[in-house]
Amino acid sequence: AGGKIIFFTYSDLITNAEDTLAEATVSPDGHFSCTFDTKETLQVFSHLGVYKTGLFVEPGNDYEVVLPPRKEKSEADRMNPFFEEYSVGLVIRNKTNDDINHLIRMFNDAYVPYYNKYAENLQSMSKPVALDSSISEIMRPFRDTKNAFFKQYCNYKIGLLRHMAYQFRARAASEMYFANRPLLYSNPAYMELFNQVFDKYFVYFSHTPEGSKILIDVNRQKSLTALKHTLGTDSVLRNDALKELVILKNLYDEFYSDHFSRSAILVLLDSIRLTTLFPEHRLIASNIRKQITRLMPGYDPPPFILLNRDSIAVSLDRFKGKYVYIGFCSCFSYSCLREFDMLQKIYNKLNKYVEIVTISVDDNLAQMRNFLSKNNYNWVFLHYGNQPGILKDYDIRGYPTYFLIDKQGKLLLSPAPSPFEGIESRMFEVMREKGDLQ
């Protein structure tokens, strides 16, 4: 009672960015109600403690849903940026036999055992007749089903089964399921197969005579027109919409690889945003750009508002006008502790220009406060507990990890050297370059 429930959908199924659809507050008697608009069947979900729960919704329908018993994340779960919620389907009280959720659940119950049998058994490569027989068995109960979304869902799930069971290689699957077919951006089965079939497509196609210019098109020319022309030599990609979607997926996947220039990828993403005729692609390009630039030098760092040793909320924006050296540390980690004395010396020298901010990942605020009461460190310490997602936002994989932010609030060094790695001399270089020191 009194809790807030937020329902989301995926903004796109390449980045899996989430869009808020509706919010509801649970009444004292345990009920809630919310409404949202959609012109197509959507996958809707909510994060509820340890659970991620959801359903498919169709335009014009009402759904009376029953939530699972509330189970909050433990403190360890809440503090773990890599914790994965348990997936639980919502119970629908007013469902009918032709309800999309009922159909998909029945299909998946039949499909998963066969998927496990064939997709994880390489011997299925030599048994296409047996696979075809299994597919007929899966689809038998649904022969008379008219629901278009469901039929497409089944078709692409079967395509995934054939692909994963090595009956269809990527080339054959792309010709059968994607060439000259409509793009189904919101159908998870379509996008799951799409992401499998066109995984590493740029790299593979660049090794063919027709695709050998891909690296030049991207890295040297930074030309969307040239890239489209090269990809157009693949008969599967004669459709402009599919071609652009393949480009978007591969720009996203290759951003952290050694094959393609990051600056070139950003140029191409901007070209798509400005020139595409497909609104869905403009959105996907924007989502990709937002995700891949969040920790790049020259871009805004992920914002935060965290509690200091006095339980006062401190925002990252508060430090604009000075350089900010952020470190993610544990007050009980030897690697962090051995650098604190060096940080104090740096702070004593440069506090006129540089703000040092240590973000403590200790179990609770009391531990950080107790540590500071015994040590005379006078720079800013913040605790991550009220915003544990900050570890994921900054992609923290070990302690200590540092970042340097410039006076305008943009990432300057990401990640930055540690005190032992010479951050002090690097700071002097930066400040001299910027004219802060003579």
Q: Quick gist of this model?
A:
With 438 residues, the chain is α+β, with helices and mostly antiparallel strands.
Provide structural commentary.
With 438 residues, the chain is α+β, with helices and mostly antiparallel strands. Helices cover 40% and strands 17% of the residues. It has 16 helices and 14 strands. Helix 2 packs parallel to helix 4, helix 4 runs parallel beside helix 6 (188-197) and helix 11 (262-275) runs antiparallel to helix 12 (279-292). It is globular, with a radius of gyration of 26 Å. The mean pLDDT is 91.
Helix-strand layout with pairing:
Elements: E1 4-10, E2 18-25, E3 42-48, E4 51-57, E5 65-66, H1 75-79, E6 86-89, E7 91-92, H2 100-119, H3 128-139, H4 148-164, H5 170-177, H6 188-197, H7 201-206, H8 214-220, H9 224-231, H10 240-253, H11 262-275, H12 279-292, E8 305-308, E9 313-315, E10 323-329, H13 334-350, E11 354-360, H14 365-373, E12 380-383, H15 390-393, E13 401-405, E14 411-416, H16 423-433
Along the chain, the helix and strand elements come as: EEEEEHEEHHHHHHHHHHHEEEHEHEHEEH
Tell me the radius of gyration. Answer: 26 Å
| Continuous helix count | 16
Count the strands?
Answer: 14
Strand order of the largest sheet: 9-8-12-11-10-13-14
Kindly state the mean pLDDT as a whole number? Answer: 91
